[in-house]
Amino acid sequence: MNSLPLEGRSILFVGGKGGVGKSTTAAALALHLAESGEQILLVSTDPAHSLGDLFDTSVGDQKREIIPGLHALEIDPEQEIQRYLARVKSTMRHYVQPAMYSEIERQIELTRHSPGAEEAALMDRVTSLMEEGPTSHDRIIFDTAPTGHTLRLLALPEIMAAWTTGLLRSRERSASLGKAVDRLRGREEARGDELAWFDDVKEPATDERTQKIQEVLLERQQRFSRARRLLLDPKMTAFILVLIPEKLPILESEKMFKVLKRHKVPVAGVVVNRILPKNQTLGEFLESRRSQEAEYLERVEKAFAKLPRVQIPLLSHDVEGIDALREVAQHLEIDR
Questions:
Q1: Residue 252's domain spans which residues?
Q2: Residue range 16-49, pLDDT digits in tens
Q3: In this structure, what CATH number is given to the domain that contains residue 151?
Q4: Predicted TM-score of the model (pTM)
Q5: Nearest 5°: phi and psi at 266?
């Protein structure tokens, strides 16, 4: 076993298969760091929020102080979609004629339930928190949704940056074509030099409306590019995999680790949760389970041999409230 190397890393993602204790691990880690003197922001991106249950208090969509040094919030996907679409509507109103407002609103509303709308809105909020969080807190910890949802979310900065880059190029090509058509129609005086004419055609249109559209697209491209740089910076960011010693969670974690490596997302280590207690007589049934668990733990050792691994024992009670989270946190060995 090793301690988790978190020193200097101000953005932490905690993820894994559903039901393995991601939220418990994230909450215990946040509590431990806050009680060690750090200012921590704990954020749940999982639609099935459980931070409030873990801390035995209500946690909403705005930052709430849990204990001194620890704030938490649970992102509401529906509210994020509403905010996201409201911003899009507001932006679009600047670039279309008033007669088109109702059609624009109708088209944007149709996207509310389209594939990827929730992830795009959620990533917009996560990007803001990644940029703003470290300025007001020592660390921001994301308690993520189950594996598939999280991987789609982490891929979005790259996708959105590429998408806006494509739109910007399309705008430039469209503007260049528009100028070429204007010249062919005689609306602008030809310069005579054919090569100079073609050079001029490549320049983007300079009308105010086009410039504003390009500015909006460029701002979003830069924003998602910054989020991607933060996400891939091993000095700033770390992903912590959580699993339990059972076949399916191990298999899913192995797949997730490969995907994270392929996308160069830095993984700090593995938390193996709910280990059966040692040095106790458990009875025939649980001894059989412990024998099977030993095989799975050996597989974890091999599959994640290059990563630090921390074990958390199965407790005799539910994890709920500050005291129970402290009990979990005692087993989280951290280099901070």
A1: 4-129+140-335
A2: 998 999 999 999 999 999 999 999 999 998 877 8
A3: 3.40.50.300
A4: 0.80
A5: -70, 125
